Every structure is written in structure tokens, then in C-alpha cells.
Amino acid sequence: MKFILGIDQGGTKTAAALMGTDGRIYGTGFEKGAYFPVHGKETALLLMQNAAYKAMEQTGSDISDIEMIVAGVTGVDWPGDDEMIEMALRERLPVKKISVCNDCVIALYGGTFSGAGAVICAGTGLNAAICKSGGECFVFGDYLGENLQGATALAQRGARAVFDAGLGIGEAERLTALYLKFAEAGNADGLLHKYMTDTAFQDRLRYIVPEIVALAREGDETTRRLLELFAEELDVYITAGLRKMGMQDEPIDIVLAGSVFKGKENPLTDHLMRRIREDIPNANVLRAKYEPVVGACVMGMLQKQEFTEEMRRSLSDSAEEMSLLRDISS
Q1: At what angle do helices 81-92 and 41-59 cross, to 10 degrees?
Q2: Which residues of 139-170 are buried (b: 16+ CB within 10 A; e: fewer)?
Q3: What confidence score (pLDDT) does residue 327 get?
Q4: Can you tell me whether residue 112 is helix, strand or coil?
Q5: Distances from the Cα of 247 to the Cαs of 102, 243, 252, 254, in angstroms?
């Protein structure tokens, strides 16, 4: 059997998966993540190579069994980045057909088989992409400012609401209690001092976001509005991107991927879905079902053939067996 090798490299993890011609995932391999503009191209490529060979070892295959490679790589943001990584990857994994794109693009195919659409990837940071059926993609990248960088931005917005309340601007009683407990601080002054002087604390603060979402779900007005404002600002960029690509009037799948959108009752997800549907009436907004590395395999397969219902069942069953389904229920 010939395989499609999917690769997903983010800052936290590098994943590889082998998909057979029947749509089934047969093997996976994992390494730590890398961001090649910072960690270096050779380091990033070595991790991709190692993850790929781990997947091949799991299936008893070798490089001659690989028909195509699709790699979603964080840092592929500018013209020419994809070709540079593609050529360097081919030296380590000599496969004739290799396609490299930003890692956000492969996440699109973790939620749709249409071959076109938009995706919003929100984890520690945030990125988004819009792709046409012919393969042309617009990746937002640095068009999205720091105020929209996923959990990091949400945690910072929450902290600012607490600081404002400490000055008597607005009310944030429950949010303040949450932040003070997280920071082990006695008051807003102590929290502010830690926030401004402890970079490790600033980095950890993103882990408070699920609790912010929980407060909003319980009806807290401050956190509810915080999430709504974030969703509304993000919606402005997504609708602008669709207009830029001339896709605002087309029926289109918009995929939400990443930990920030986790949970069936997530006020941020619910509000963003409503806003997008109001602005883009033909949008079908859904959450990603599969991990992005599976999306890379699907993207490759769609370049060859249509995904049949039988192939979809094989993919779903094997992805569940290999823990490659997105957890959107908790």
C-alpha cells in the first residue's frame, strides 16, 4: 500500500501520520515542537524527519512507500517560506511530491472535506486562513494583532479588567477573585506587581482561560462581555478576509480549531458562531473533528481523489483508535 504522510509542526509538538489509500490512519509519530524562524531550520526539519520515521516504523513501511507528503509548518508565513522548507524537507525525506503550507491551513481539513473554506486556530496564540477550491490561500499571520492572540490575549484582557476594577472602573468581583487565587496575591496591587515583573507568571496566565469561560457560562456579566468583545473583534477580521478573497457570498465552511474553542457550552464559541452567521449568512460554522496532522493527510488525499463515505468511516474509526479526534465535549 502507498501512503500519504501528513506532518504538523507547531511550537509545542511535531506530529506525523500515515494515511492509506483507503482513508485509514495506519501509524503516527511524535516529537517536540519547533518554530523554525527561532529554533533554526535544521532543528525543525530534524524533528519532522524523526516523527515521520517513527510513523513509518509503526507501520513497518519505509520512505519508498510514501507517495506524497503534506506538511503544515508554523512559521511558513511569507512568500518563499514554503518552497524553502519543501526543498530542505525533500533532502531528508526524498519523496517526489511534497506540499508545504502554514500549519493553520491543514487544520482546515480537520473539519471539512470541501477543499475550500476558512479556519480559525486559537490556542496559546491565534491564526486564521481562508482557502479557495483551486488551492489559493490567504493566511492572516501578523495581520492579527496581539489583542487577538488566543488564550494569551484573553488572559491579558481579563487581567486588565481586574486592574480597571481595582481603580473603580467597572465591576469584576468574581474575575478578581479568580485572578488573585491564581496569582496567590492578596489584592489588585499585588497582582499588578506580579504581572509586570514576573514573565513566567505572564506565560502561565493563559491557563486561566478555561476558568474565565466557566465564569461566563455561569452568567458572570464581566467575563461574558469580555468573551463577546473578543469574538466580535475576531469576526471583523474573518469577514474582511472573506471579502478580500471574494468569498463573502459563497456557501463556505468555517472551521474553529484549538483549545480556546473547546467545550460544547462555550460562550466564546457560541457568540463567534452567531456573529459570523449574521455577517456571512452562507457560512457553515463548525468545530474541527480531527487533529491537524489528520487534516494534512486529508488535504493530500483530496489532491488525488474525492473522499468517499467508506473512506470517511475508515478515517473516523482509525482516528479514534489513535487518539486523533479533537475533544470538543468537555
Answers
A1: 50
A2: bbeeebeeebbbbbbbbbbbbebbbebeeeee
A3: 67
A4: coil
A5: 20, 6, 8, 12
What's the CA dihedral at 162, 164, 165, 168 to 10 degrees? 160
What single-letter amino acid sits at 155?
Answer: A
CA pair distance 242, 128, nearest whole angstrom: 11
Task: Output phi, psi for 91, to 5 deg.
Answer: -65, -30
Q: How far apart are CA 270 and CA 276, in angstroms?
A: 10
Burial of 210 (0-12, 13-18, 19+ CB in 10 A): middle
Percent of the chain at pLDDT above 70?
99
User: What burial class does residue 200 get, using C-beta atoms within 10 Å of its C-beta: 0-12 exposed, 13-18 middle, 19+ buried?
Assistant: exposed
Band of pLDDT at residue 282, cut at 50, 70 and 90: very high
Please report which confidence band the pLDDT of residue 328 belongs to, taking 50, 70 and 90 as the band edges. Answer: low
The residue whose grid cell reads 492572516 is 140
Res. 211: pLDDT tops 60? yes
Q: How far is CA 147 from CA 71, 103, 153, in A?
A: 28, 21, 5
Extract the C-alpha cell encoding 251.
456557501
Looking up cell 519508498 gives: 64
Gap between the terminal Cα atoms of the chain: 37
pLDDT digits (tens, 9 = 90+) for 258-267: 999 988 899 9
- Measured in whole angstroms, the distance separating CA 81 from the mean position of its chain's CA atoms is 19
What is the C-alpha separation between 286 and 175, in angstroms, rounded? 29
Residues β-bridged to residue 99: 70
* 327 sits in which H/E element: none
Q: How many CB atoms lie within 10 A of CB 91?
A: 9
Joined grid coordinates for residue 173 = 468581583
Q: What is the pLDDT of residue 264?
A: 81
